[in-house]
Fold this protein.
Amino acid sequence: MSNPVIACDAVKIRFADAGDQLEVLHGINLDVHTGDFVSIVGNSGSGKSTLLHILAGLEQPSEGEVSILGTALSPLNKTQRALLRRQHLGFIYQLHHLLPEFTALENVAMPLMLNGMTRKQACEAAQHWLEKVKVGHRVKHRPSALSGGERQRVAIARALVTNPACVLADEPTGNLDSSTAAQIHELMVDLNESGTSFIVVTHDRLFADMATRRYEMIDGRLESRHG
Ligand SMILES: Nc1ncnc2c1ncn2[C@@H]1O[C@H](COP(=O)(O)OP(=O)(O)O)[C@@H](O)[C@H]1O
Ligand SMILES: [Mg+2]
């Protein structure tokens, strides 16, 4: 079998807390394979965002190892980790994190230009993705001129435009009304069916239940959810 897209092996993390060490993740094991749709639910403060940051190499674990497509992160420096992240991962946050002074098209083209693509090619690919997520009519708008749902669609296009192996989403619909959220959920499930792996942290149990692999983070431990 080919390498997992993301492999997380016995990951622990401790933070300094008033002179003490507070362990937030207590030994997380998770392998994500091509085409997986992983959902993680769990109470606020249970460690979900911290885990996503570690999987993305944004935060280093105190113990354990994360590998992306077979490359272990711990021997890499910050620049090497950033390169690996830019090549293979995409991110969607609760708040869109789009750059306010740029249009939707420019926001989506940006990651490709950072990866060295010409502006013309990057804009063509961005246009394609914006059409695919159904905001092709809003490409010249800045984020402030878009609705919440449209902004998240643009953020999804930006996450997918580099053709990442895996998208990590942290409460991507936490800020949307339920019917807009449901449309965005459907979009992510469709994109997963086209081959991109997803790891989604969500409070929405119905959405979490659409995943092919379901987990709950309970006080820094990842438990499988069945049924
Ligand atoms: N850099 C940090 N320093 C100290 N404590 C942190 C840091 N990052 C997260 N924590 C703590 O880790 C716990 C889990 O946080 P988080 O992963 O954001 O939870 P969740 O996303 O599940 O709500 C919280 O108690 C939080 O305060
Ligand atoms: Mg969080």
Notes: Residues 15, 24, 42, 44-50 surround adenosine-5'-diphosphate (ligand 1) (CB under 6 Å). The beta strands are 6-17, 20-32, 37-42, 63-68, 71-72, 89-92, 166-170, 197-201, 213-218, 221-224. The chain has a mean pLDDT of 94.
